[in-house]
Amino acid sequence: MILERRPIRLALMLVGLTGTAWMAQNYPEAEISNGLIRAKLCLPDAKRGSYRGTRFDWAGIISSLQYAGHEFCGQWQERHDPQIHDAVTGPAEEFRTNDAGLVLQR
Questions:
Q1: Cα-flanking dihedrals φ and ψ of residue 37, to 5°?
Q2: Cβ atoms within 10 Å, residue 77
Q3: What are the residue ranges spanned by the domains of the chain?
Q4: With CB atoms 3.0 to 4.6 Å apart as the test, which of 11, 42, 49, 93 could cross-link to 57 if both were Cys?
């Protein structure tokens, strides 16, 4: 029974390590709190920012939103790459073109 739990513990440890690895890359961020809610905001930065893609607005990325012991925004991908267009967390606004690309609608 003890041997059966080791793989599970190891897997949980690895998930925990990969989940915090992208935060350890020192992306520019700011933390705000009102005493009840705590938020970590990813600051826009073309060279060092946590997101450098073109799909989402850089100014709306929240890496952590906590209230009453619950985390509402957090990393959801196994690996983080700031150049990937889906590498965002929180309520980031997506740039939409009604599936028209950059063609001007008249």
A1: -115, 135
A2: 14
A3: 2-73
A4: 93
